Fold this sequence. Notes:
- This protein is α/β, with parallel strands linked by helices.
- It has 14 helices and six strands.
- It has a four-stranded parallel sheet, sandwiched between helices. It has a two-stranded antiparallel ribbon with strand order 1-2.
- The radius of gyration is 18 Å and the shape is globular.
Amino acid sequence: xxxxxxxxxxxxxxxxxxxxxxxxxxxxxxxxxxxxxxxxxxxxxxxxxxxxxxxxxxxxxxxxxxxxxxxxxxxxxxxxxxxxxxxxxxxxxxxxxxxxxxxxxxxxxxxxxxxxxxxxxxxxxxxxxxxxxxxxxxxxxxxxxxxxxxxxxxxxxxxxxxxxxxxxxxxxxxxxxxxxxxxxxxxxxxxxxxxxxxxxxxxxxxxxxxxxxxxxxxxxxxxxxxxxxxxxxxxxxxxxxxxxxxxxxxxxxxxxxxxxxxxxxxxxxxxxxxxxxxxxxxxx
Length: 284
Ligand code: A3P
């Protein structure tokens, strides 16, 4: 149940041998037609996958109801995901939690479309705490206090949230890069989906968009066994202890962090992110 460290980043599963991660970084070739979903874990990755699948199937639910979500937009850094992606013809939707310094180098010369989804790190922290409490992949945090420390220090899966976001946001001026926050996606999903369609060069009819909004909603996704992770064996995810789709709201951190923790968090955020334009972060 230990982490595997690679170039300063803790990886959670047995699924990430260093030679594989090195190979991905050096040799995976991105194509201009590729569409990438990049996130720090617990930022709404799977929600965005569901939305993109529904964009490409024009609101039709066949795909999302017959193929597990991790096969529709595989994780590049896992050996299984890599295999599915490597020789795939046509549209390649792919997902990654890799920080920019470990990402395939070919991204810097490619016009692949990149969507970086990010979320209030306080909610990422709380969501991560609950996730790691039901997962059997690495050692469980004993308390939220303990996980809070790990998160601030970057000793959680895929490292420091602050470094991850800072690294990827450095790409934000590129025309093939779209930054999207979980909050704007939640507060005005319709508008955010239209923005996504425009970025991807896709067009949806009104009834297709309505179907997309319905089927990617928290409640409907939670019922879809191809998307709610109940197909994962319980030696990986202990379904008795909680659900992958937990609450699906912004601001839930206020229920869990103490006033003192919130103050510490504000200070760390300020220290680490002060030089970035603060209007990038919509949750203030
Ligand atoms: P919570 O734990 O706060 O509920 P990821 O997919 O990156 O692991 O992120 C998981 C988080 O996204 C969880 O947050 C999960 O509930 C939330 N999520 C998943 N599907 C969602 C949806 N359709 N709408 C809103 N939030 C969703």
